Amino acid sequence: MALYAIGDLHLSLGAEKPMDVFGGRWQDYMEKLDSGLSVLREEDTVVLCGDTSWGMTLEEALPDFLYLERIPGTKILLKGNHDYWWTTAAKMNAFFAAHGLTSLRILHNNCWFCGGTALCGSRGWFYEEGVHGGEHDRKIMNRETQRLETSLRAAGGAEKKLVFLHYPPLFHSFVCRDLIRVMTSYGVADCYYGHIHGAGHALAFTGQESGIRFHMISSDYLGFRPHLIE
3-229: CATH homologous superfamily? Predict the structure, then answer.
C-alpha cells in the first residue's frame, strides 16, 4: 500500500482546452500522464492537489473522472482555482455514485486516512497581510484557514498528519502565516502543494520551515509522475 500525490493534471477530455498548446513540458502531456500514473496499484492512494479537470460542470468533467476511475487505486481530490466543476460535497458524491465512480473521494472539510496517516487539506489562497488583496481576499483566507483546521480536527489523534493544498503557503517572498500557524498547531509533518508552473518552479519553496517540510508537486514539475510519499 503506497501513498502518492500530484497536482494540476488539467485534464480536458470533455472540454476543448488541451495543455499541449503551451508546449514545452506540456507537449503530449496525456501520454506522459498515462505513463506516470501507471505506477499506481489497486491498493494505493493518490491525492490530487487541485486543477484536476477543465470541465465547467460535473457533466463536462465526467470524461476526466472516468479517466481517473480507470486508474488503479483510490483518488482523493481537493479543489484548485480552475476546478469550475466543483460544487457541494453532497452533490459531487451523489454524481460520483450515479456514474459508478467508486474510487474518487472528495477532500473538503474532512480528512481521509491511509493506514495510520491522516490526509488533510484545503484549497488555500494567496494572501499576506499588508501585501496582497483587501477585505475580499481576507474573507477567503479566513474561510480556507477554517476549512484546513476543520480537516485537521477530523484527524483526531492520528500520529501522523499530512496537509495537501492547491496554493503554495510559501512562494518567493510570499508567506501565508495563517495556514502555517494552523499546521504547526496540529503538528503537521509535511505539506504538499501545486498551482505553480513554468518559470515559477524556480521560485517555489521546497524544504523545511516552521518545523514543516514543504513539497511542490505540480504535474509538470514532477515530470507527470506522482510523488511517492515515504
Answer: Metallo-dependent phosphatases (3.60.21.10)
